Amino acid sequence: MKNILSINDLSKKEILDLIFLAEKIKKSPQNYNSKLKNKVLLDIFEKPSLRTRLSFEVAVYQLGGHTIFYDLGNSPLGKGKESIEDTARVISKYVNVVMARLYSQEDLISLAENGNIPVINGLTDYEHPCQILGDLLTIKEKLRRLSNIKIAYFGDAKNNVTHSLMFACSKLGIKMSVACPRNMQPLFRINGVEVTQDVNKAIKNADIVYVDSWMSYQISKSKHAKRVKQLRKYQVNVNLMKKSPKALFMHCLPAKRGEEVTSEVMDSNKSIVFDQAENRLHIQKAILLKLLC
User: Fold this and answer.
1) 207: number of CA atoms within 13 Å, CB side?
2) Looking at the structure, do residues 267 and 141 belong to the same domain, yes or no?
3) Residue 157's CATH number
4) Do 14 and 112 fall within a single domain?
């Protein structure tokens, strides 16, 4: 495992090994508090972040290492004065690992191909693997298994979270149903993943109900009202959750209450959203250790 660029690059064993290591770290964090001594992580951000930035920075600190935050808005790369290929070669001389949160998956791959240190996908428009690895850790904690389960996803499915979730479910044999408008379907199809416009079909026998924001960072305010109208029937509310009473609710955050989910669901005893957010920390530690140790 040289990089974490896409869930699709990982084998089933590699995914399960990361989850197992994260469980060990979470149970006994003191056993790992100097594993990254004198190691440096470079955080490159083209997109804003709360959980990704905090979880990686805290993870490195608690493992005994250091983090450098780098905003592309003020960099030669971000201003188009230096190529991503040259940037990759330079940063490889200074730090041990890079976590990049970029718009383009192609730029992320170029960063990895032109440097000689591990690169972690902190999010692109195409994928969000660290989020989904943390989600799998959370599901395993709550359901005590990652087999014989069904995940139902609702809302805009032409996005990074849906893509990574689809790859993960396919790798692990998890049944997945995606309910979304016709013009917001995933960019690809994959075996074992159902895509439908029927919310009742999607939620039937679901163990996990999952949503993402209807208004991703690149969505302009001028499109807000139209998108809300298109997506309204895919809102996760109490009535929808009642159709699969055993289901737990997940959201990668940030959440816009009253749009993709209601407060009644977010704050219910079925919601594991904040456990999900916490587990980003533990899975980031596992990722860093797998790549550097």
Assistant:
1) 17
2) yes
3) 3.40.50.1370
4) yes
Whether 109 and 136 share a structural domain: no
Number of domains, the chain: 2
Considering the entire predicted model, what is its pTM?
0.96
Q: Known catalytic residues?
A: 101, 128, 131, 212, 252, 280
Owning domain of residue 241:
130-272
pLDDT digits (tens, 9 = 90+) for 51-77: 999 999 999 999 999 999 999 887 777
Is 123 found in the same domain as 138?
no
| Residues 144-170: tens digit of each pLDDT | 999 999 999 999 999 999 999 999 999
Q: What's the pLDDT band for 236 if we cut at 50, 70, 90?
A: very high
Asked if residue 1 is part of any domain, the answer here is no
